[in-house]
Each structure stands twice: as C-alpha cells, then as structure tokens.
Specification:
This protein is an alpha/beta fold and about 325 residues long. Helix content is about 30%, strand content about 25%. Helix 1 crosses helix 8. The chain binds ribose-5-phosphate.
Length: about 325
Amino acid sequence: MHGDIKILSGSNSEYLLQKIARRIGIQPTSRIVSRFSDGEIRVQIKESIRGDDVFIIQSTNPPSDNLMELLLLIDAARRASASRVTAVIPYFGYARQDRKDQPRVPISAKLIANLLQVAGADRVITLDLHADQIQGFFDIPVDNLYATPIFKDFFTSRHSLDPDEYMIVAPDVGATKRARLMARYFGNLPLALVDKRRPEPNKAEVVNIIGSVENKKLLIVDDIIDTGRTIAVATNALMEAGAVEVRVAATHGLFSGDAKSILDESLIKEIVITDSLPIPKEKRPERLEVLDIAPLLAEAILRTHDARSLSALFL
Ligand code: R5P
C-alpha cells in the first residue's frame, strides 16, 4: 500500500481538482503555484505527503507553463518522499506529433513521456489519448480512459439511436478506430468515414465520403476539436451528401484561433465535449454541451489507490 490518497493540481486543472476531491470526499492537498518576479514558476506542497499516494491533476494544453507546473509538482512530490506519484493528465498535450513523418521533426509525445518519467512520475492516468500507442512511449504504467460511456449516457438519454436512422462518422482515417468503438458501444450503429486531407497544418479538406449517409442522422466522433475545421468541413460534405443532421462528440475542446466563429457558422447541430480542458466563456461555440469528466477520474484514482482493476472503466 502507498499511504493515504493526496490529490492536488496545477492551476490549469484546479476546477477539476475541486470536483474530484468532493467526489472522493477528501480535501485537496494544499500547495502554492505562483511566479518569481521574472516569470519562472514556483511551486510548493504545503503539507506533508511523506509515504502517501499522491495524484497530481493537470491538463497539458498550451501554454507550456501548464506542463512545466506539472513537472515541478511531480518533482516536489518525489523529493517530499511521496510513496507513489501519479500524473493525472485529462488532456495530454503534444500527443499529435507522435511519429517522425517528415524529415527533421521531433517526436514530441515521446519527449513529453520522457520528461514526466524523469520528473519522477510512477504512473499516468489520461483520457482519450490521441493515439493508443503513445502508452508505449512510457516505461511506467499508463491508464488511458475513454469518455465513450459518458457520451453514451448523454446521447441515449436524448435520442433513440435507432440503427436505421443514426450513423457514426469518423472525420478522418485516424479516427476510424475510435468511431468503430463508439458505433459498437452505441448498439452497433453503422459507420461512415470522411477521407480528410491536410494540405498544411490547421487546414482541412474533404476528398471523399465512404459510406452512404443519405437521410441519416450523423454523430461525428473525434478526440480533439482544435481550430474546428475538421468537423466543420466534414459536416459540410456530409450535409451535401444528403445527411439530415450532424452532431459531434469530441473528448477535448481546445477551440483555438477562430474556432468559435468557424463552428457557429457551420451546419453542426450540436457539439458535445467533456470538461477535460478549461474553456473560457468567450471561446465557447453556441450549441455546445459540456459533460463532466470528474466522476470518471475520481473513480480511476480510487481504484488505482485500492489496487483494483480499472478495466471496467475502459468500456
Ligand atoms: C486529428 O488527427 C485529430 O484527431 C483532430 O481531428 C484534429 O486535431 C482536429 O483539429 P482541428 O479542429 O484543428 O481541425
């Protein structure tokens, strides 16, 4: 055993920390995350965690200070003689650069994995990693949770999800596995695939739609909404191909740049995401629904602490 559960967070995931702590029924561990005069980050854990099972919650979306806070908190916990340190990373940033697909590019996800381990993380809990194989970049256990059950509860409470009426859509080839999983989980709904190309980073164009979407209600499934272009152009193409309506379920809402206006002007009927990331009000598109991820993370933390299986949470 690893002593008592102690949970704390970086500043980016403070709102999740509060909800998770309430759910578990413990107080968050007191810590300072502040700045030195020159802007460098200063952290300090304010109570003893010696011999304890420490969970540090922080999504690592930009700015990189979010990642830096997490690394510093892990280092602080390790040096404070925590028995075990688990990094709980609801959104794992830099995951999209996970292979050397062009000359002279980094494998960013591997570098982040190295940094977390060097800082002293013993385990990682994360949610809908961009690619499952990123787990292999770590030499420590990584539990990659799925938001699928949360989406299922949401959609089944509002829609019939009749397989004659509804289809699941992968907005690009990379999303096929995730979409297939969702289709099976939603009662074997039929699947369509959008063949998307990126002429350059942050641009998206549809080349082809695989599967007949005519007269169907569609649910696009993706892991990330960043600029919103992938789902906006996919929706245009799907509506042109005769779809009745298009909704989107995506785990992580980054909504960078012009995402709000791109999505507000799009034909998407509803966008459903989780609160894995904080989303400022002014970046929130209209027709957005945000689902609470804290119960899933709290359960994963409790099960990890008790050395109980997490597989029931995976699907
Ligand atoms: C790409 O492989 C991802 O799964 C998402 O489709 C992508 O990150 C979405 O980006 P954007 O919203 O900028 O099109």
